[in-house]
UniProtKB/TrEMBL annotation:
Domain ParB-like N-terminal: 76-168
GO BP annotations, alphabetical order: chromosome segregation
GO cellular component terms, semicolon-separated: chromosome
InterPro entries linked: Chromosome_partition/occlusion (IPR050336), ParB/RepB/Spo0J (IPR004437), ParB/Sulfiredoxin_sf (IPR036086), ParB_N (IPR003115), Plasmid_partition_RepB (IPR017819), Plasmid_RepB (IPR011111), RepB_N (IPR037972)
Region (Disordered): 13-40
Start-end of Low complexity biased regions: 13-26
Family, as annotated: Belongs to the ParB family.
GO molecular function: DNA binding
Native source species: Belnapia rosea
PANTHER family linked to this entry: CHROMOSOME-PARTITIONING PROTEIN PARB-RELATED (PTHR33375)
Protein name as annotated: Chromosome partitioning protein, ParB family
A UniProt-annotated Pfam family: ParB_N
Amino acid sequence: MKRKVRLNELLQPLEAAAPPTTAEAAPSPPLPTVAPERRAASGAVRAMGLDLERLATEARRAQELERQTQSGELVVELEPAQIDPSFAHDRMARTDDADYRRLVDSIQAHGQQVPILVRPHPADAARYQVAYGHRRLAAVAEIGRRIRAVVRPLSDVDLVIAQGKENAERRNLTFIERAFFAADLEARGFDRTTLNTALAAHPTEMVRYLAVARSIPRWLAEAIGPAPKAGRPRWKELAALLEVSGVPDSLRVLVERPDFRAAPSDRRFERALAAIRAPRLRPDAQTYLDREGRVVARLEPLATSTRLTVLETAKPGLSAFLADRLPQLIVEFEEGASDAV
């Protein structure tokens, strides 16, 4: 108990001393100074101090990492398998063109120079979702490396705006890709302001995008591909023809042909447009295609005759070739008829 009282006395501030009396005015001889006793900290106390210091350092580091993550300053390395694509589909050909192969070769030789942007996945705390950088993600995954990424909390609106802005600044989408990107965003409930901002589009242009996307079936657009040289006027023509007549059976057959699938995207567009431009025939009409799948001739039975139509634009010189052969064909037909009798 005496030790506790003594400790309290030492911790209390000194009270003001009373004025000295006459007898006390003379200075008293100084007391001998005694060096304070040094007490060695025990091992347990020393270890506790080190642990506290380490925890404080780690807490500061964690706070800094969180700050950098929140501000988008931190570049981290993630496993590609942890990352899901954006919910908004933009490109029709992400990994099957020459540009993508060059990207793979560049990353293989020089590493990934530009990080992608991801956000924490809104439905799975252990995963992420791409805002932009889908092609870089696919390339790094193909090579078998970890992906360098900026992690930033993003709302759905922030994500699609960042995605559209990156597309515009790096490798802009083609007309049909923009049209279906806009249609996907509209289908998810985004307002026109967000759509216009994401695609940097004037409201009038946005109306055109959405009209074309509504008129062209997605399966057909994806079969054709991005068609970078087609441009807005011809995609609008394709959409208008489909609105009037629907998708002809000949076009459904055409897009399944191996030679159609192997052709470049712009060539696929030309062939699809030519097939839709063709006039409608009777159900018993016959259509003749060349080796590239283009319609070159039609044979259509009428009431008292049969009409042969040759498409010179598709196969110049074919009509002259058939005209030269026609007399011989007639002779062969007559001889065959005589033999049959």
